[in-house]
Amino acid sequence: KLDQAATLVESADRYVIAIDAVVRAEVTADVGRRARELEPTVLTAKNQLADAARLVTQARPKLNDEDRRRAELLKTTAEAKIAMMEQAPLILSANSKAAAAQPLAEEAWALAIASDALADSAVASYNKLTKAGVQVSVINNGKAEQGLKDARDLFSRAATAFPEAGMDRYVAYVDQKLVQVAISRKSDAAWLAGQIAQANALIAPYNKADAKGVAMVKALPQTPAVAIADAYKTTADAATDAYFEARRRASTTDQLLKGF
């Protein structure tokens, strides 16, 4: 039965080693995909390790001293690896969610920054108070609006991918920038229609929307990548600590088992 138990541990190790490589890796798209692929194998590994521990317990009363020492080590490593697998699902899930959200959020943030620059350029052109200047403002505001809409879609997808990362805060910020650009576009249209008083009346609402946007962006983490990293840490840190404590026990025991 000890040999059967050892075989089960070796079989489980195929999954444990693959999972361990993902747990120890930095979050990337490839690692995220691998994490999703490995999630179903956690239960298989746990079951094999539990069966191994059960066989050792059954065999122990009939063992001599040397075999009893081997049995203790087999049971210890099986239990340590079960403890690793108990933490693995949360870590793998956080890994796959962060990996899915990060490229979406990074692309969205780049679009939001570029769109903000276009909106600022539109205001500068409008402030020339010439037909040509306002026409340039119309073009830049249109580009800014489209860029912000694309950014919003990407942030929304990132929020769905990793709800714990707070990407909804970035969606709200982009929504506020869209409000600001919409006011600017109304001002463009009014000025070109010769409705100067109406255009001027939009200055105060625009400035209020701008101030709100500035306050919102100041309250955000430095970048969405920082928000995702913080969420990963909050979500997975306790499980990761427990995982690596169990991993140390398993590694120590595996080294001792090599003597048998």
User: Spans with pLDDT under 50 lasting ≥5 residues?
Assistant: none
| Terminal residue distance | 15 Å
Category by helix and strand content: mainly alpha
- Most strands sheet: none
Order of helices and strands: HHHHHHHHH
Give me the count of strands: 0
Strand percent estimate: under 5%
Tally the helices: what do you get? Answer: 9
Taken from the alpha-carbon principal axes, the silhouette is rod-shaped
Mean pLDDT: 96
Rounded to an integer in angstroms, the radius of gyration calculated over CA atoms is 29 Å
Percent helix, as a range, is over 70%
Structure commentary:
With 260 residues, this protein is mostly helical. Helix content is 87%, strand content 0%. It is built from 9 helices and no strands. It starts with a helix and ends with a helix. The mean pLDDT is 96.
